[in-house]
Amino acid sequence: MSTYDTVLSMARQGETVELRTMPATEAGVLKTLLAHPLVQPHILLRQGASSSHAYLDKLVARMLHAYDPCALHAGIYARGQEELIGTVSLQNWNRYENKGVLGYLLNPLWWGRGLATEAVGLLLDYSFQELGLLRAEGRCRGDNLRSERVMIKNGLTLERTLPMPGSPAVVMKVFTLLHK
After folding, report:
1. By the number of CB atoms within 10 A of the CB, which of 13, 24, 26, 95 ranks highest?
2. d(CA 88, CA 171)
3. Are 175 and 152 in contact (CB under 8 A)?
């Protein structure tokens, strides 16, 4: 079995959440989650990204159908439940340098319960143990204290702060974790 096949069948279970491959039937739920007004400001960190239906459709397709060989996306589900409540991903995955960028989002109805922290921890464990990742990077807007706490609780440390493209008053914080 190739690494790619292993990634596609990734499933991990924690105390309160499970990470699973998302079926194509989750497209509507995922698009609604990505379009949520409380989630939008935190996922559109790239200059030029938009919340248009076409952009969200493309993003959903990439997440569900593994079109990007440099990314791994998994659904976050409350343990034992079938409802998709978020996603966790390894983006910009460089297999030669064994590094990648974390991505995660959670339905705001589930915020404040430690579920994103647990899901990110499961992905980090999988990435370091199974994929051979040596360096993980996480990014968040400077005002996203929830996301910052998720990374800190998973052992990432603040490496640098960068101005956001097109918004000099807003900064992006970059956190890193090196595999021991």
Report:
1. 26
2. 22
3. yes
- Residues whose CB falls within 8 Å of the CB of residue 3, separated by 6 or more in sequence, listed in order: 95, 131
Distances in whole angstroms, Cα of residue 1 to Cα of each of 30, 93, 108, 126, 144: 29, 19, 37, 17, 39
The topology (CATH level 3) of 3-178 is: Aminopeptidase (3.40.630)
Token pair of 23, please?
């079926």
Beta bridge partners of 131: none
Mean pLDDT by 10 residues, the chain (180 residues): 48 94 92 89 57 78 80 93 95 92 95 96 95 95 93 98 80 93
What is the DSSP annotation of 12-50? EE-SSEEEEPPPGGGHHHHHHHHH-TTTHHHH--STT--
Phi, psi angles (nearest 5°) of residue 89:
-150, 160
CA gap 73, 41 in Å, rounded: 20
Residue 144: left if φ>0, alpha if ψ -120 to 50, beta else—which one? beta
- What is the DSSP pairing of strand 84-94 with strand 99-106? antiparallel
> Is the pTM value of this prediction over 0.70?
yes
Task: Return the SS3 of 100.
Answer: strand
